[in-house]
Amino acid sequence: MEEAGKPNLVDYFPVLRKMDPQGIRHRMAIHFGKLIGLFDHMISQRLESRRLHGCLASNDVLDTLLNITEENGDQIDRNHIETMLLDLYIAGNDTTSNTLEWAMAEVLQNPETLKRARAELDQIIGKGKPVEESDIARLPYLQAIVKETFRLHPPVPFLIPRKVEADVEVCGFTVPKGAQVLVNAWAIGRDPSTWANPNSFVPERFLGSEVDVRGHDFELIPFGAGRRICPGLPLAIRMVHLMLGSLINSFDWKLEDAGDINMEEKFGITLQKSHPLRAIPILV
Predict the structure, then answer these.
(1) Domains of the chain by residue range
(2) CATH architecture of the region 98-154+183-283
(3) Which of 40, 149, 157, 183 lies at 20 to 30 Å from 102 by C-alpha?
(4) Binding site listing
(5) Is the pTM higher than 0.90?
(6) Is the pLDDT of residue 26 over 80?
(7) In contact, 146 and 189? CB cutoff 8 Å
(8) Residues annotated in the binding site for heme, as ranges?
(9) Which sites bind heme (predicted)?
């Protein structure tokens, strides 16, 4: 993701596309090739296991895809599976881990937020216990923290590029057919005409609010909206709640270095911290 997020001259001068002047496409092909090789090995191992022991009911994504291949080999084959696993890994790895890191950084530098989140977790599920999926609906303040994190730190600040299918006029401007369009979710989440104190981390703004990240409220669209909304949204939301809640409820935290946390952002496709969060967990 770091390689893909580097500024690329080809984005501004398409005529250079075949030349690949910065070598980004070449390096990306090498990285993707290594991942495809890893997935190919995983598939081979799973097929061998199924051959020796029969179709085990592991009920994971790979087994499901292999079952579909056996039933409808003309619709999906091994190459499709490898490409799909590549998409899932790339799209779901950095985005979720970055969001969790941002959430922890915001919570640790806002002691009152941390205190209130711990009080809610202690009251609802008990101190030291991991959060389960069934608990999420009963933790409104934890939900508010996650929403506020998505508002300030959308996983993909410009979402995924769109391509215009026909000439269209928007607010007096003509967007020509074939143009690439980027949606600045980062700026939308910090729009002062929509959000009070837009650059401050205030989870309380979402308490009692119906605004959500699922693509229905256009002032908060970290996953996009419409038909092209991120398909990983349901899993990502659950995982962030589960991991963040469990980390807050199971550990006390101490920063490795005294002082304020560096909250600078690093340019790229995904929104990373310029300086990784360094915190020491202490079992409660």
Answers:
(1) 6-76, 98-154+183-283
(2) Orthogonal Bundle (1.10)
(3) 183
(4) 230
(5) no
(6) yes
(7) no
(8) 230
(9) 230
